[in-house]
Structure formats: structure tokens, C-alpha cells
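Notes from hallway chat w/ T.B., transcribed later so I don't forget. T.B. wanted the structure written out for a chain they're using in a teaching module, and asked if we could keep both sequence and C-alpha cells in one place. Agreed to drop them here.
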Amino acid sequence: MKKKVLATLVAFLAVVTQAAAGPVTREQAKEFAVYFLQEKGVALQGELSVIDGPVRAADMRNSNVAPSYYVFNNGQNGGFVIVSGDNRTQMVLGYSEKGHFSNDEQSPAYVMMKQYVGEMELLDKMNITEPLYETASGRMRLQTPTHDAVQPLITCQWNQVAPYNASCPKSSSTAT
């Protein structure tokens, strides 16, 4: 417990505030992903593998380009954490303590991540420049939760592909 408190305190003291929005580097994102999974009590299964999200069109005009998000998989089924590549959004866009994130275009998670990219593009169009969290000296400021964690309401596990979706209604001959 003392180690966690001390590590958190050191992280807070090591951060110098930046005033402008900007990209999050892979190293910054990975550092936070490791910290986040450890805080959730997830044992790391070796080195985290990374999947880079797409680079947004607005970022392609910028010399500091970075992916819209990074997905860090913890082994084959040890969970994953999705860290934003832009400090104007929440740091963690999604996570699971079990399973593996796949960047398959048929995956519902892939569709969700495309929506996040669209939200980031909207921030660009609206000229939002205020960072939601700060990055400096290669470190991210750790956020203090503003609410209590909600435990899962159901304990069953299921998927959204066949055969689990066989009884779902169809729209234009496509399962919903």
C-alpha cells in the first residue's frame, strides 16, 4: 500500500503542466496502460502488445502526428486497455480485465473506436484546444476518480457474433 501511495505521489510531483492540447506518445500511453492495469489488479502477462489506431486527417497536417488511440493487449486473454492518443479526451477510452482486443473491421469494438475517432475530429473542427489532462516530461498526470466504481450488473459472458446474435432482429437482411 505504501508503495502505491509513494508511486502516485512521485508521479504527481514529476508532472509539469502544459497549457496546450497535443498528442500522446506511444511511450506515455504505454506507461499509463501498465499503471492502469496494475491498479485494477490485473497481472501483466509479459510485454504489452500494441495496436495503433488511425491517424486523424487533421493530425496529418500537424508535425506532431500520433494515432487517435493505442490498444495495449495483455497477453492473449489477459485483458486490454485503450488509451487515447489525444489529451483532449478521457485518458482511458475502454478496458477489459479479460479477453483480447482485435482490430477486425467486423468487431463491434472496432465500430465503437471509429466513433471515438469521429469525436476527436469534431474537437478539431470546433477548435477545442484545452487539454482534459496534461502531459509533460514524458509522463501523464494521473486522474483522481470523481465517482465510485460500479461493479458489473450481470455475471454472464457472451459475445456479439454467431451463434450469440442468431435471434437478433434483422435490418435490411443484416443482423442488428
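Follow-up for T.B.: The longest strand covers residues 69-73. Might be a good example for the class.
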